[in-house]
Design a protein that fits this description.
This protein is an all-alpha fold. The chain has helices spanning about 40-60, 70-80, 90-100, 100-110, 115-120, 125-145, 145-155, 160-175, 180-200, 215-220, 230-240, 245-265, 275-280, 285-290, 295-325, 325-340, 345-350, 360-380, 385-410, 415-435, 440-475, 475-505, 520-535, 540-555, 560-570, 570-585, 595-625, 640-660, and strands at about 205-210, 225-230. A two-stranded antiparallel sheet has the order 1-2. Residues about 1-5 and about 345 have low confidence and may be disordered. It contains 28 helices and two strands.
């Protein structure tokens, strides 16, 4: 068994406990570590603002929201070392916990609320802010009763991949080291790379086989196109995702782009394009003006591939709920027993198991539901009965899906929140329509409801990671839980502002604006909800095909959610994930020395995190400059073939830098 020093986790941290064995965290229950200080709270809030802006931009650009926990943990540990602070472990956990609100709030907001703009509806700042805030609060209070079940009762039975990585970073930071410096350099490289592309237009952000003459012929005749996004942030994201899931995701893209799209395109001369477009529920004015244009590879992906992916995502979420029914019963029973028989237990239990009292949790839950109802009644709807229906939908679905989200994070580190939110939108649209609410007001109401539920589920999944980190290290749960509310408030306000700026700068509807951010989940929500609320054609057959495919994939043991997301997200944004995954595979297997391979993989993780954080932040800077009408782009160059070739060269150089510097790791690191 590997020996650990005094600053390492106990050897039973990651395995199941034997009968009578007890896990004792790094910070003992009897200790009184510094946790919530002015420094830790302020630093955590600053991290929440910065990473909320970065995650919002990246998520709307590629459909993947990076989890901020690891980069924030690295920064917290490195900053403490630079400032010469000692015994910072407890404070660093709080910094990470507050700052990590950014990624989960972003996921809840950007997966749903941009659909309002896509559908031509207006979303005011207060609507985006309050839906994110109330959803986040619900996620917190619904997760706390399940804390002991997931982090203590199931100790060693769930791998918690993200929590494990973050915990190791915090422990390493307590020992000291050069991790923060490495992250900063990688962030600078990734940031400058994105800034040159996004602000100056020195190279394109994506290339495709249309770059070559033969590629254009193949695309037009056979409807086959291969695209590659050359972003530093997406490359880093692929490294973190790993080769296995990157391949599964991209396999979904390959099925659509190399099988389904060419197959459907081969019938272009045998069907009436106008009737075909109407059957698909196509409403784009450009398509209807020229129905034959539906048969481009890109349009066939949008109107055939994406709906199949939507069906697969929704079915994957339903499968998750069915599988987690037992968890819901077990954890809920534990919470009810505590509520009935543990008056004052929070004051008598040991520090490392001290939660907010169940009475306080119930008070916050009821207050949140009441204020959410008021928000629905006076800020979204104008009908008391419909508002009551809306709040019932929010509570029931958020409660049922909370454990699904937490369990997914605990097992694979991926939260299927988009699929569960799609189900929420379908259910809420059908229910609201039966209650007489349709049209634009119905779409607005359903999307805001979806935003609240999506944020609640995203928060629940992310929060269980924070709580597991605290359990391993010996943080006071009550302090994590208390300050999570403030982090949610700040993140919700930041996301609302950034979302409005990005909409005014780029927009989210690629069918009307070629420079629009892809916002794949929000476009899916818009595609699903519009026909339900306006009586238009809904591609139920395609949804059913995707759902059936998800069932088959689950049956044969392939992660249906990852595959379905690949069908839904454009190929050019999935293929780079494989490049990043190949880099991870290469640097972690080059040596016969397992310790050296691990050191290289860990160093690569830091570089990838730097690419993600730096690239995403510079993406926000570029957006702000464009929003302020500061245009520094080389317009005569950025749309040329030369810019595309330059993009390939820059991407190759960036990948080489990634590999070379990852291989520089030494075992002692």
């Amino acid at each position: 068994m590997e020996k650990r020093d005094s600053a390492s986790l106990p050897e039973n941290a990651y395995r199941e406990l034997k009968t009578g064995e007890e896990y004792k965290p790094l910070m003992a229950a009897s200790a009184k570590p510094a946790e919530t200080t002015v420094y830790s709270v302020v630093t955590g809030l600053v991290m929440a603002v910065i990473f909320s802006a970065a995650a919002a931009y990246l998520g709307l650009k590629v459909g993947q929201v990076f989890e901020a926990a690891i980069p924030i943990a690295i920064i917290a540990a490195g900053l403490g070392n630079v400032l010469g602070k000692k015994n910072m472990l407890g404070q660093n956990v709080i910094i990470q916990s507050i700052g990590a609100c950014s990624g989960v709030i972003v996921a809840g907001a950007i997966f749903t609320l941009p659909a309002l703009y896509i559908l031509g509806l207006e979303a005011e700042f207060y609507q985006v802010f309050l839906s994110s805030l109330f959803g986040g609060l619900l996620g917190i209070v619904l997760m706390i009763p399940f804390r002991k079940y997931f982090v203590k009762e199931m100790h060693g039975k769930y791998p918690f991949p993200e929590a494990t990585a973050t915990t190791e970073v915090l422990v390493s930071g307590e020992k000291g080291g050069g991790q923060a410096k490495l992250l900063a350099v990688a962030g600078l490289v990734g940031g400058l790379y994105e800034f040159f592309a996004g602000t100056f237009g020195m190279w394109t952000e994506a290339v495709s086989t249309r770059l070559w003459q033969w590629g254009g012929v193949v695309a037009d005749k056979f409807k086959v196109v291969f695209g590659l996004n050359t972003s530093a942030a997406v490359l880093g994201l692929g490294y973190i995702v790993g080769l296995k899931y990157a391949v599964i995701i991209t396999a979904g893209s390959c099925l659509v782009w190399f099988v389904i799209v060419p197959l459907v395109g081969s019938f272009a001369g045998a069907v009436d394009p106008a009737a075909f477009a109407a059957q698909l529920g196509v409403s784009s004015g450009e398509i209807l003006a020229d129905p034959k244009s539906i048969f481009t590879a890109e349009n066939l992906f949008m109107y055939i591939g994406r709906p199949i992916g939507i069906g697969g995502i929704a079915m994957a979420g339903l499968i998750g709920i069915i599988r987690q029914a037992g968890i819901i019963r077990s954890a809920l029973g534990m919470a009810v027993r505590e509520l009935k028989g543990s008056r004052g237990a929070g004051e008598t239990t040991e520090r490392t198991q001290r939660d907010l009292s169940m009475k306080l949790i119930m008070t916050v839950l009821i207050a949140t539901l009441i204020t959410t109802f008021v928000f629905f009644r006076f800020g979204v709807l104008d009908n008391t009965m419909q508002s009551m229906v809306a709040i019932a939908i929010v509570f029931v679905i958020a409660f049922l899906f909370t454990t699904v989200a937490a369990n997914a994070i605990a097992i694979v580190g991926t939260n299927p929140v988009s699929g569960m939110t799609l189900m929420t939108l379908i259910l809420s649209s059908l229910i609201l329509a039966s209650a007489g609410l349709t049209g634009t007001s119905g779409m607005t109401a359903a999307l805001v409801i979806g935003g609240v539920v999506c944020t609640a589920l995203s928060m629940a999944g992310g929060f269980v990671t924070d709580l597991k980190i605290g359990y391993w290290l010996g943080t006071t749960p009550r302090k994590q839980e208390s300050w999570k509310f403030l982090g949610t408030l700040v993140s919700a306000a930041t996301v609302a502002g950034v979302l409005i700026i990005l909409n005014r700068t780029y927009g989210f509807d690629a069918s009307t604006n070629p420079e629009a951010l892809v916002a794949p989940q929000a476009n899916a929500m818009a595609a699903v909800i519009k026909p339900l609320m306006t009586g238009g054609q809904t591609p139920w057959i395609l949804y059913f095909a995707g759902a059936a495919l998800a069932l088959v994939l689950t049956w044969i043991g392939i992660p249906a959610l990852a595959f379905a997301l690949g069908m839904f997200i454009p190929m050019e944004l999935n293929a780079p994930l494989v490049v990043g995954g190949l880099v991870a595979q290469f640097v972690s297997t080059r040596s016969k020395d397992a310790a050296l391979n691990k050191a290289r993989a860990d160093r690569g993780t830091l570089i990838a995190s730097g690419f993600i954080a730096g690239g995403a932040l510079m993406g926000v800077v570029s957006a702000v400059l464009k929003y302020c009408d500061i245009d520094m782009a080389l317009t005569g160059w950025m749309n040329t073939r030369g810019a595309e070739w330059t993009s390939l060269a820059a991407y190759a150089a960036l990948t080489a830098y990634f590999v070379i510097h990852s291989l520089k790791a030494r075992k002692e690191e």
